[in-house]
Every structure is written in C-alpha cells, then in structure tokens.
From TrEMBL:
Protein name as it appears in the record: ATP-binding protein
Name of encoding gene: TB9.4
Pfam families from the UniProt entry: DUF3107 (PF11305)
Length: 91
C-alpha cells in the first residue's frame, strides 16, 4: 500500500476504555513500526504504550485501558475554501 512508504505520515487512533473520545495523532513511523511497538507493549510487563507523534510529543497509554488501535494513512489537510465539482460542472 502507498501509505506504507517511509516518510509518509501515519494516523494512529487509540480507543480508551471508559472514555468517549479517542486519542488521534500523526506519526512519522511506518505502519509496521507502530504495530510492532503496540504489540510489544501489549505483550510486555511494563503496562505502558509509548508512541511519539510527528512533532516529537510523546503519548503514554496504560495498556490495560486500550480498547483498540487503528493505524492508517493520515488524511490530507485542506486549507481554504473549496468549490465542489458539481457546482463547477453546472456552470
């Protein structure tokens, strides 16, 4: 898949039990590296998952509270106002 290229931002979503919100951030790591880190934390005895985002901020999550982890391509950020193609086609 294209988003697995090194250097392409990866979006990480972590669902936390008993919390209505999820932790969402972009990582410079590859999807495989993020998956390996998550798997090691869940299998290990430390009880803590540690991930770093693109800006160098570190996220620490108690592994006992992790409901799910979603790893995928980061959404492209849109800037400004866009005109839909259906409006352009009608003009």
């Amino acid at each position: 898949m294209e988003y697995q290229r090194k250097g392409a931002p990866v979006e990480v979503k972590i669902g936390i039990t008993d919390s209505p919100r999820e932790l969402v951030f972009s990582s410079a790591q590859s999807p495989a590296e993020v998956e390996e880190t998550v798997s090691a934390a869940l299998a290990g005895d430390s009880g803590l998952l540690s991930l770093t985002d693109e800006r160098g901020r570190r996220y620490l999550v108690n592994t006992a509270k992790i409901a799910y982890v979603e790893i995928g391509p980061a959404d492209a950020r849109r800037v400004g106002f866009g005109i839909g193609t259906d409006i352009i086609a009608k003009a």
